[in-house]
């Protein structure tokens, strides 16, 4: 504020200030201990108006005490963009003010109805260009507006004439950003302006009663002086910057005003308290509870707390935001809470009761905060809107500062004014916007981002482990209360609890756990082990099969192991399947009984019946079989087992039979290496030949287990495994025995194909590919190329995921599919630089794009190299391998003469 | 038995909305309402915080790891309408790209199979789905499907690169002509399947209708040896459907109700071999299913209860 700006108003101000200071200073001491205190200019005592009979008249009971508001979400079009709105205390009318609009609308149930246009006169003056409007909360007829030209106008709706203008205060030099009526005092109006002053008006007088300056206060001066010079300058510059921004925001009328009214502050003039005077005021708000207190916010990020009786200095000042503080709002119930919103996109809630303002909450919004309003009846809720970018209105729970509790998305342009319709009704919000519309929002129609938010995260890890994140409070709540408070399908549960803040409370944390799923149930450890240990080539087929069977068995994957064993039999001993064998199995089937089977189960089967049986069985009936076995097994003890061993005739018979069989096989199978193997193999082949392998699950497992305890239980195993199957298939097997026992391997190809498909469908593509590789040409032709390729690529992908690079490479190499075996080539890239221009060769071949020369010239013999080409990665020169080797034996420099010290390794 | 290997102390200040393991299962990325994305090293049951990524201005809904062949890349999407692609360079994670092409909250992100290049699909509450394709040198090309789902899109999931029947006699060595497809689920209760036309435009291929409320998640099953295309979907209506398509043209999809829960079902997730589906619902439990076996609720997981202090 330069001295140049001495207008008449300023002059008056100057004269009055010291006088008042004198008058107030004296009784100040009394006021501290609550004693009676003379407040001369307002004609009041601090005990309040109740002591003053003449003031009682203006005091009105709370509007609409018990009645209920009704209405719906609705909007109406305005003629011009709104800058601010304010609600009448009857909650039935709203005033909308803007640069070229000033109207009162009645809020009816279904619509807004225009009631009064306050913009009268043929040539609307700048006084009507409103930056802010406020409706008195006690007097329905009293309104005040803040004009962009610095004028504060009051309006009396009770005036009979068309022009309702009441009083005009032309004391501010620049845009008045905010006007505010005293919450309980009928005649007191406060204004805050861009010019850095706040003025308090008594509406019964023609001019302001006191002026508060943002900086030129005693306290402020002291603070200012104590700052180092450098910091002062920064503040100054910052202010100018903010000022520059303001110019965009303010109306053009305001700019016109500026051009004649207040020259811009030059940057250099920042010495002394005078320059600090004019920190623009963005908001002023009377405290609701403290009669004499008001808060003001400034463009430099400060918030000041004033006692209205002490214009000389503020009671308290603190920096609340980084950048301008655009708005503030006192909490309607909590005496000490002040919410402030700034350009730094934050809303902060301060506890002003403590000696130093304490930041209680901080809400981060998406865009700079233009307005903030506490939601009635909801202690922790406040509504905000932004002045740029974001057109929505948000309602936040300050305890949950990251997610808005509700969001209103009706506006198409920046929302400029928000107001709760009634000070005790939390569900109606009114808003005005730059998009020239006035809206009534119903809280229940708001979109609630929290409701939409996913409260759980779930992910399958590579090894079948599950990561699961869930709301922690839910977990805790389960012990006792209703588990899921966010449940959409229990609206009644919600409604009854009228505090809308409740569903929110405490829902703000999650627990994240990683589960290990049952091995085989999804765990993938077996996959890695199997992949690493399987042998796929380099040995005779039988050995490979045996080896893989052993691997599978050791990993507890009995079905897979059995499949390998069967493959071995099918393909390695063609013609060796003796007729006797088939007959033998039939005989066994007929002779075995349930008790035997059970005893077996008890002893050997139970551990083997792991997860795999559950997973790998595709048929429901087999599954039930398993269950049956398990349950019956539990009933029978080991004693039973021994009993059967000793007494059961069929068992004895079988035992001998099997052993005999074994010998036979030794003789016939030259490739045989593991003496134990055939025990489990032999009885087996009778079934798979006649029906799908997948249909014989109990058999394989039993047999495997037997391998560990070869003798007594082994024989039982045979029987047991046959029991469930043979009862139904014995006829078939008999007829089968009539065929020629020397079946060609082709005979099984359909079966093997089906088996591979089965495994693939189970997700065990590993098995499918391994078998494909090992059997090679034997099965290849039976499975269509695409499927094979798909299995290969899937398996290779999986291997790479598990970082089993070597296995993956081996699979690629061994693959029978052309498209797969070329994968290795495709994934190798050589980056080559042109030996002339030193730039990367972009195209294929050896001709450089840029210098159009062949890059593969030998630096020694200067011929184009065909065949092996070696080059230095440092200088890109190279040539025939032989030539370069020879050259580098004699010299360490590049043969091209580039001076590079090449290295051949 | 189900056992908890690890309870990760994420120190997120608000609710966690997504957790994703990376391709190799060694790192876990989480995102929360507190606007942050965190990455943990979870090898051997550990939990070491590797990165705390700040940059979003609203709750972060979902994260997605790109295939490691493109480097360490993580995409996140947020209520602040932005999609951020984070990249690890020399051990530090930094924002590599920010996509602000949506008018409302971005709810889902999903990377395309690596065979297609680096392509990210993003589904937003503004009803649109955008596809970001990396064109090299830090540039991303954006294609947008407007009005993919009225009211909003909640989930996107890519079809595996190898769709059965799509590999029709490729001359070997030549790059196969993949047909890019993805599924999306939205607030219109629909699941839609999208297909890239030859001119590079995305066209709605199928509309799958069965849910009676918002579709919360869709998951296209990995194609490991499966002869069919399979999609799992879950919804606000508590139902989980398994959609299968047997025919090569991909036109006939049939739904099968896997289970009806009494609460919202938020997530469906396939195991990598696609034989198990994990489902998480409003009851705060995870159920695993094996659709091939028709088994329901093989296992039920409940996070360990912790007393709130």
From TrEMBL, chain A:
Any Gene Ontology CC annotation: GATOR2 complex
GO BP term, pick one: protein K6-linked ubiquitination
Keywords: Metal-binding, Repeat, WD repeat, Zinc, Zinc-finger
Region annotation (Disordered) ranges: 695-715
Gene Ontology MF terms: ubiquitin protein ligase activity; zinc ion binding
SUPFAM superfamilies: WD40 repeat-like (SSF50978)
Signal peptide positions on this chain: none
Pfam families xrefs: WD40 (PF00400)
Keyword Zinc: yes
Intervals holding WD repeats: 169-211, 318-360
InterPro entries: WD40/YVTN_repeat-like_dom_sf, WD40_repeat_CS, WD40_repeat_dom_sf, WD40_rpt, WDR24
Entry function: Catalytic component of the GATOR2 complex, a multiprotein complex that acts as an activator of the amino acid-sensing branch of the mTORC1 signaling pathway. The GATOR2 complex indirectly activates mTORC1 through the inhibition of the GATOR1 subcomplex. GATOR2 probably acts as an E3 ubiquitin-protein ligase toward GATOR1. In the presence of abundant amino acids, the GATOR2 complex mediates ubiquitination of the NPRL2 core component of the GATOR1 complex, leading to GATOR1 inactivation. In the absence of amino acids, GATOR2 is inhibited, activating the GATOR1 complex.
Family: Belongs to the WD repeat WDR24 family.
Name of the protein in its database record: GATOR2 complex protein WDR24
Automatic annotation (TrEMBL), chain B:
Gene Ontology terms describing biological process: COPII-coated vesicle budding; mRNA transport; positive regulation of TOR signaling; protein exit from endoplasmic reticulum; protein import into nucleus
Annotated localization: Lysosome membrane; Nucleus, Nuclear pore complex
GO cellular component, one term: lysosomal membrane
Keyword Repeat belongs to the record: yes
PANTHER family cross-referenced by the UniProt entry: NUCLEAR PORE COMPLEX PROTEIN SEC13 / SEH1 FAMILY MEMBER (PTHR11024), PROTEIN SEC13 HOMOLOG (PTHR11024:SF2)
Assembly information from the UniProt record: At the nuclear pore: component of the Y-shaped Nup107-160 subcomplex of the nuclear pore complex (NPC). The Nup107-160 subcomplex includes NUP160, NUP133, NUP107, NUP98, NUP85, NUP43, NUP37, SEH1 and SEC13. At the COPII coat complex: interacts with SEC31A and SEC31B. Interacts with SEC16A. Interacts with SEC16B. Component of the GATOR2 subcomplex, composed of MIOS, SEC13, SEH1L, WDR24 and WDR59. The GATOR2 complex interacts with CASTOR1 and CASTOR2; the interaction is negatively regulated by arginine.
Protein name per UniProt: Protein SEC13 homolog
Organism of this sequence: Rhinopithecus roxellana
Lineage: Eukaryota, Metazoa, Chordata, Craniata, Vertebrata
